[in-house]
Amino acid sequence: MNWYKVLENASEIAENQVMEATAGGRTIALSKVNGVICALGGECSHEGGPLGKGDIENGHLVCPWHGWEFEPCTGRDVYNPARGVESFTVEVRGDGVYVEV
């Protein structure tokens, strides 16, 4: 596992925002919920929808293709915890935001 800088500053992502980033050649879905920046694998476990283009609704990251909902920091499927997407550790440092991939 390696650390990759995904944002220059934590202020680049607003509360309840979702955005795509690249870390270690992988597409990552970054989100910010309750002041915490989270990182998930960029593809929905249902049909590969782009999670980084989704929305935060009721505290969940919602896939833009079919509405599947995930916990933004754990990747667990809200309605079936046995399913989900990969989650990554995030660190906010003095020189940026990093994701361990």
Automatic annotation (TrEMBL):
SUPFAM superfamilies, A to Z: ISP domain (SSF50022)
Keyword Cytoplasm: no
One GO MF term attached to the UniProt entry: 2 iron, 2 sulfur cluster binding
Domain Rieske: 5-99
InterPro entries linked to this entry: Rieske_2Fe-2S (IPR017941), Rieske_2Fe-2S_sf (IPR036922)
Cofactor requirement: [2Fe-2S] cluster
Keywords on record: 2Fe-2S, Iron, Iron-sulfur, Metal-binding
Domain of life: Bacteria
Keyword Ribosomal protein carried by entry: no
PANTHER family: FERREDOXIN-RELATED, RIESKE DOMAIN-CONTAINING PROTEIN
Family of the protein in this entry: Belongs to the bacterial ring-hydroxylating dioxygenase ferredoxin component family.
Protein name as annotated: (2Fe-2S)-binding protein
Organism: Prosthecochloris marina
